[in-house]
Amino acid sequence: MTTQPNIEVWLDLEETIIDDWDNGLLVNHGKIKRWLDNRNITELRIWSFAIHNDADKKVFDFHMKEIIERVLDRPIIEVLSVEEMCQKISKTEKTHYDDISDFIQMNGKMWSFIKFCLGHKQNKHLVLIDDCVPNMRIDEFDKKLIIELVKVQTL
Length: 155
Prior knowledge:
The protein has 155 residues and is α/β, with parallel strands linked by helices. The protein has one domain (7-154): Rossmann fold, CATH 3.40.50. Helix content is 39%, strand content 21%. The chain contains five helices and six strands; from the N terminus they run E-H-E-H-H-E-H-H-E-E-E. The chain has helices at 29-38, 54-63, 65-72, 82-93, 100-120, and strands spanning 7-11, 44-47, 76-80, 124-130, 136-140, 145-151. The protein has a six-stranded mixed sheet, with helices on both faces. Helix 1 (29-38) links the parallel strand 1 and strand 2 (44-47). Helix 4 (82-93) crosses helix 5 (100-120). The longest helix is centred in the last third of the chain and has 21 residues, at 100-120. Residues 1-5 have low confidence and may be disordered.
């Protein structure tokens, strides 16, 4: 097993690692952990439309973060709210969204993640594990960027 330090793994929440925001019951954790173990991934980040703002981030930190870190045996080092996603993407694209609902409707999970990666990352391999994205890979040669979408059901 080789270490791949430039890989950033982002994990969706609902129907990927938890059933839904209200219950927070773990799902798919065995197969996600095996996938992470096989790639020697040491840390995680969260990319979820369930976390709208800082208040939701606090709920996540208090109710879900520790158990997810424990079952996946890795720290979660970054959590972006939808408000933060919207701000970052709006800034790089020089666009305006009326609110986070507009942002979500216009971009969806796949395109918001791709736009974030293209606008804010380089020399990286970024992976989003999610229940509602297709399995696909984008190689952006100018920025030495690999963007990979992994459908959790196929792990």
